[in-house]
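sorry to bug you again but im stuck and you know this stuff better than me. below you get a single protein, a line of residues and a line of whole numbers that encode the local backbone shape. mainly i need to know what kind of three dimensional shape the backbone takes. anything you notice is useful, everything is just below:

***
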Amino acid sequence: MERSRLVINKITEEQIKKSIRKQRKAIYIGIPALIALFILAIYIGVKIIYSDEYYMQFELLVSEGHLDADFTQQEYFDFCDRIDGSALEKRFAHICFWID
């Protein structure tokens, strides 16, 4: 009876050690993978927000005279407030959406 109990305890200890090794391996692989995915998501998000369309709309604002070439943030915010509900809102919705 005592011998079978020791064998069961030894197997259990071996299984625990094996489980701990697997968990450590998962942590060492999983955490860096999650960090990499998080950084990738931020990079993709920034690329979507600040796409070529974003910069072209700024150039269009200046070329059409809606803003001066050396406009300030306050002038930019005022412009976005003024276009709410107007025909310009559709044209410049992308750059005004991301300032909120």
The chain has two domains: 1-49, 50-100. The helical segments are 2-49, 52-63, 73-82, 88-91, 93-97.
